[in-house]
Amino acid sequence: MGFHDLRHIQARFQAAKPGQDIARPARILFVDDQAVMRELLAEHLRLQGYDVVEASNAFQALTILSSGDIFDLLITDIDLPGDFGGLELARMVKEAVPATRVIALSASARLPGRADAIDRFIGKPATSQQIRRQVGEVLRPAPIPPPSKGRFHGDAPR
Description:
Elements: H1 10-15, E1 27-31, H2 35-47, E2 51-55, H3 58-66, E3 73-77, H4 86-96, E4 101-106, E5 120-123, H5 128-139
Parallel strand pairs: 1-2, 1-3, 3-4, 4-5
């Protein structure tokens, strides 16, 4: 089982879809090599009721993910030390578990390259209020569409 292949968690995902169990707090994987910022923001999210796991680089994040843990949200710095950065990590996570939401952080004003796996972008330095607001918006369940008119709503053919 390689770190770059997270497909083995797809079966587990089918049994426990992110965000589906309202009895548990949302799980967040927070990846940033700036320890002070990561620890401070992760603790702020914990105080908001989230279950937060921290990693300092993409390899450590993949080690955590390869254990089969399911996360509702990945928050990752784009510029991480090591062989690959946050964008590559986000793509791998989305490929393995498409329902996982992703917030990218960067000191740059813009996202570099393709950012199709990113749901939100926050520039650094980020405040705890910015993080809290973006996390709340990203994890907010999609509204349930109104019922369609049809056989069960009085429009049955006579």
